[in-house]
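Work Package 4 report. The design task specified in the project plan requires that, given a folded chain encoded as structure tokens, an amino acid be chosen for each position. We show below one input record used in the internal validation round.
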């Protein structure tokens, strides 16, 4: 019985045409001449192919965005290194100018009648009942 089945040829349709066997040469020929685009299997897979193309575009865009962020980060780090000495100098100058002795000296230079207090501030303690 197996011998009889081996004798019969497989057919694609009812007209009796034999199935076309595809070889690598035929597939390459179909790709080159564009007839693969009309193949039913290819047409059925078009939504998936478009989805893969969309994912590829998103992937490429994401990599460009990541590279842009890396370049921006490096540029900001270089700017920070350039501005750090200036920030330290400005902070040091501000600390120097806000010392109590420096403020008193500036008041004397500008001939202002302000004098520094020699007594420490006192704490006023009040009961809650006095405010009610």
């Amino acid at each position: 019985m197996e011998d009889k089945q081996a004798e019969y040829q497989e057919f694609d349709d009812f007209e009796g045409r034999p199935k076309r066997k595809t070889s690598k040469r035929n597939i390459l020929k179909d790709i080159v001449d564009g007839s693969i685009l009309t193949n039913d299997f290819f047409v059925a897979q078009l939504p998936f192919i478009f989805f893969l193309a969309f994912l590829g575009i998103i992937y490429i865009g994401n990599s460009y965005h990541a590279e842009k962020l890396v370049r921006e980060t490096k540029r900001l780090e270089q700017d920070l290194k350039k501005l750090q000495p200036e920030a330290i100098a400005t902070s040091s100058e501000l600390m120097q100018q806000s010392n109590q002795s420096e403020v008193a000296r500036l008041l004397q230079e500008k001939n202002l009648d302000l004098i520094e207090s020699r007594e420490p501030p006192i704490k006023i303690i009040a009961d809650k009942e006095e405010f009610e």
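Helices lie at 2-7, 24-33, 40-44, 46-97, 100-109, 128-131. Validation will be extended to a larger panel in the next phase.
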